[in-house]
Amino acid sequence: MTVEKLKKEPVLSLVICVFNEEENIKPLLSKIYETLQQYNFEVIFVDDGSKDDTVKMIKSVYKKEIILVELKKNYGQSAALAAGIEQAKGKYIATLDGDLQNDPIDIPMMIEKLEKEDLDLVAGARKKRKDNILFRKIPSKIANFIIRKLTKVNIKDYGCTLKVFRKPIAKNLGLYGELHRFIPILASLDGADIGQMDVHHHPRKFGKSKYGMGRTFRVISDLMLMVFLKKYFQKPIHLFGGIGITLFIAGSIISLYFLYLKFLGQDIWGKPLLLLSVIFILAGIQLITMGIISELLIRIYFEAQRKKTYTIKRISIGKN
Length: 320
What we know:
Strand content: 15-25%
Strand order of the largest sheet: 7-5-6-4-1-2-3-8
Number of strands: 8
């Protein structure tokens, strides 16, 4: 690589996923240019199928360091982040929301912490969070507590998008589905050293929040997968063997009990306990096994074959 090319390579890549955020583009870029002047940076906007004028607004402020990645439809934040990270060239990769609630002013301090403590990832924790207490803050605190206890990855705020990575860790996250909420866990599975720091959080001025209570069940199901990957990915027999043996012994005891009743001349056909135990055992084993196998097959499908969970319509780079 020539000296000229090294000079052109960005030190920092900002990955910003946007969906119907037309009013936030100009203020966000103004804040970025105001607070990150010391870095040679690039801004990668990933438009996740916006229906408003978000794309038009980004193109209206094109500069050479601005890259726009347009996805063909709304794939969700995990796929959008994966698309942006794939395009990133910087030594450091920062992710932040496009709704002005994250503040780029925190990024230099996060990079400094990354270097000073020799970390691979610094996750932001929203200080004095400016969201609805009942529907956002309280459920978030409960969810963060449960995730910390189950995964043993001690991050205060899993819902904060503002994070700074070293490039190799970001490139190997393996994001798909809706696993963006569990990025610190995915990084820890790759052996990353993780830190966290308090960051600013601002109230939303323009547009509407894309999050609702309906995501709760999706978070719970994804959390089950994260717990499995964290605790049992390299030793699944410890999980499934224990469950299988327990169920087999319980089923055997029930079967022997009903066999004893049969020898006594009693009619055991149609007994609710017998039927319920058989259905419970078979359905439980089948559903758990199918769920885990399906998740593993998805990982093999996307990662071993290097397939993507999204389709890019076009990539364009601004000119001076």
